[in-house]
Hints:
The chain is mainly alpha-helical.
Amino acid sequence: FNVKDDELQFNRKVENLLSQIGDLSNQDIFLNNKSFSIGIVGKWGYGKSSFLALLENNIARKKDQYILIKFNPRHSKNIETIQFDFFQALFESLKPYDARFSKSFNNYLKALQIIDSKNIIDFVNTGFNAIINVESEKDIINQAIQRISKKIIVIIDDLDRLLADEIIE
């Protein structure tokens, strides 16, 4: 999908959105622990997918500024793997920028497993140490992300097609 196919004339809005994102300082975002979400909302057939396609194309042309991570929860094998699949997509995309991501992310996922409803006893047994591990691994990941000189944009598509339980995951 490219600008020539932009019958709904979204490209100007896409460029404006990327300009606003580009104006945000990485330093400000991390120092203030800020991240943000942008929702693209519209009825079926109003061009949400076209908007996202233009956004992806614009990001692809600016690879020196952005890392694009695409995730579609509908592609997960089942509801129980949605979170794992999301983190897998995130980690795989960031690994080329810092080899330490692999180990940190694996440790973070292991720490998160402690809170899994199936392992609630493990959480009770390990108690406060489990929470510390999650926070420690999260800090390591945040520091690694700060070392990347690009903004990370995650597109999660098709949320409107998920069931309520899948959205919660």
